[in-house]
Design brief:
Blueprint lengths: L1 H33 L15 E13 L3 E12 L2 H21 L7 E13 L8 E15 L5 H11 L3 E8 L4 H26 L5 E12 L1 E3 L21 E13 L1
Antiparallel strand pairs: 1-8, 2-4, 2-5, 3-4, 5-7, 6-8
């Protein structure tokens, strides 16, 4: 009996050992998947920033020191050559008048030169008939002495200009006004941000970003002249008024 029991126990122990080894191998292979992941610490460097975004406006009123005057010649002749010759003669006289009024040659620039056919459209619906050609030549004169602007306009019209498209007053160098408006815009933005931070019970700790937009708003003065020149007995009254230089900013402030 004793020898029989001993002979049976050795195979049984072998099977038990094989099963234990297999179980250990499975535990090693699948152990990482069965263990719950450990909680990861948050990196303070990647934490989202808390911010307040506001906009500010700075506006400075300035007196213009230059004016851009647009004058031109528009006429119609039966042929292209006649239209070109007549327009050239008229514009030469207009430019000479601008020079006489004190406008430098560097401040006179051609802005438009067009030539187009002119047709007559009969009332009976028949085909249109070519009657001539219209040529238009326009220059822009920059007047740097505003006290002479009436002389510039009247002289150009008296010399043969048939169109006066308008006057635009502006500041030649707006950098100083822009600097003032920029400071005012930032003060306006900070005031708004302080109000929001106070209402939220927090404090501003810094600035994340600033975006700026500036604009020098000129004052256009429309003026339309009739053909035939200006009345020599009257001088054209012109008022320069004021301009506004605007700077707007978008600021993102940091809060805790």
């Amino acid at each position: 009996m004793t020898s029989s029991t001993g002979s049976l126990s050795r195979p049984r122990l072998g099977w038990l050992a094989a099963g234990a080894f297999a179980g250990l191998a499975l535990a090693v292979a699948f152990g990482p998947a069965l263990v719950p992941p450990a909680a990861r610490a948050v990196d303070p460097a990647t934490a989202p920033e808390h911010t307040i975004s506001v906009s500010g406006l700075g506006r400075v009123t300035v007196v213009p020191d230059v004016a851009d005057v647009s004058v031109g010649v528009s006429l119609t002749r039966t042929t292209v050559n006649d239209a070109q010759a007549a327009a050239a003669t008229a514009m030469t006289a207009v430019i000479a008048a601008l020079h006489k009024a004190g406008v430098a040659d560097k401040d006179i620039q051609t802005t438009s030169l067009t030539l187009q056919p002119v047709y007559d459209y009969p009332a009976n619906g028949s085909a249109p008939k070519l009657t001539g050609y219209q040529i238009a030549n326009t220059v822009q004169a920059t007047v740097r002495e505003l006290g002479t602007i009436s002389d510039v306009i009247d002289g150009a019209l008296a010399a043969g200009a048939t169109t006066l498209n308008g006057i635009t007053f502006r500041v030649d160098d707006p950098s100083a006004a822009e600097a003032q408006a920029r400071v005012a815009a930032m003060q306006d933005a900070r005031s708004k941000a302080d109000q929001l931070a106070k209402a939220a019970g927090v404090s501003i700790t810094g600035v994340a970003s600033i975006t700026e937009q500036s604009e020098n708003v000129p004052v256009p003065v429309p003026y339309f002249a009739a053909a035939g020149g200006a009345d020599k007995a009257a001088s054209t009254p012109v008022q320069a008024g004021t301009n506004e230089v605007d700077v707007s900013v978008s600021v993102v402030y940091l809060i805790p």
